[in-house]
Amino acid sequence: MALLPILNYPDPRLHTVAKPVAEFNADLKRLVQDMQETMYAAPGIGLAATQVDRHIQLIVIDTSKEQNDLLVLINPKILNHAGMQTYEEGCLSVPGVYETVTRAERIKVEAQNTEGKKFTLEADGLLSVCIQHEMDHLKGKVFVEYLSPLKRNRIKTKMLKHAREIERNNY
Ligand code: QAP
Ligand code: CO
Fold it and tell me: How far is CA 110 from the centre of its chain?
């Protein structure tokens, strides 16, 4: 098991479009383990492979308080959606930033597990938001892209300034 480095916005690699997973092998299972460990350590409730610079359609999510209800979604597709909800979102790739985003309220998702077996899942509330947020990462989209250009640019500047400060302290 290993903690993986997380890409920080505005890293251009966060805009890479992920490819479908074709082989359900031991390497994939190891990546799932490492992503799970990385998410729990953060701590976070969702992590997409894109965020650890692996551009395949793989997401791990756990919205439980006890961190004991892991959901792994491989090659996820939204079959249908209904309603609208707004939620204050954060992202492990945009630390310290929380902004309101509007998304579908309920979704039905089809995905595969680490064995390649297909399943469907219905979600609402936080889980629904989290799945949609993580699926955006697989398309190369970060939640700040839903905000106004003014807000997004302020966030970009803040992130770059923060990165420079860390760089200076490491010197
Ligand atoms: C996506 O985000 C999400 O800023 C998952 O300093 C978030 O796990 C979907 C985190 C909210 C729906 C609602 C963020 C940790 C974790 C930070 C996360 C931070 C430390 C974010
Ligand atoms: Co995110």
Answer: 17
Structure letter (DSSP) for residue 21: P
Q: Is 95 in the pocket of ligand 1 (CB under 6 A)?
A: yes
Distance 93 CA to ligand 2 centre (A): 6
Task: Report the length, in residues, of the chain.
Answer: 171
> Please, are residues 120 and 112 in contact by the beta-carbon 8 Å criterion?
no
**23 part of the active site:** no
Domain residue limits, the chain: 16-169
CATH code reported for the domain at 16-169:
3.90.45.10
Indicate which residue of 134, 145, 165, 167 is catalytic: 134
CA-to-CA distance for 122 and 67, rounded, in angstroms?
20
Within 10 angstroms of residue 166's Cβ, the number of other Cβ atoms is 9
Per-residue pLDDT tens digits of the chain, which is 171 residues long: 899 999 999 999 999 999 999 999 999 999 999 999 999 999 999 999 999 999 999 999 999 999 999 999 999 999 999 999 999 999 999 999 999 999 999 999 999 999 999 999 999 999 999 999 999 999 999 999 999 999 999 999 999 999 999 889 988
